[in-house]
Amino acid sequence: MELKNTKKKLTEVGFFLKTSLQKELKRQKHNATGRLSRGIRNHVKDLTLSMMSSVSYWKAVNNPKAAKEPNFLAIKKWVSVKGLPATAAVPIFRKLQDYYGKPYIIWKEGNRLDRTDFAGRVANKHKKEIANKLAPSIGRDVANKIGLEFGSKGKGVIIGGKGFIKAI
Residue ranges of the domains in the chain? Predict the structure, then answer.
């Protein structure tokens, strides 16, 4: 069964989620270089919407317990992007070694933020909105399929729904 309306709407929902994830990363102040935010992608295949990232550290940002050890080169790059002196990388690296795998909030401004589970927060915040966006498309596709089945057998049928009526 070809569900064209549903696939189209899943693609739209994917772009909506991408934008929402980027906003949540920014709200949680996870945009040091912007690579994670720019690397978020969506893909629809066989009525499955997948959200993925082209950067390898997204799991550690989403859940610090997934991290194994700090990456010194990544810290050096972050220090450079933030305009800090290069010598700041070593103390930051040492400080992170003590906290690695634990929820981290090192600086004052971060103490007021929830800085974990950006993906889960977006999913929970928008789940009803996503369901409301998908429901009409799914209904149209199902109605079209039912109409084709009954229409092919020579039986006239009227299919109706919220804002949708089709006579076959």
Answer: 64-113
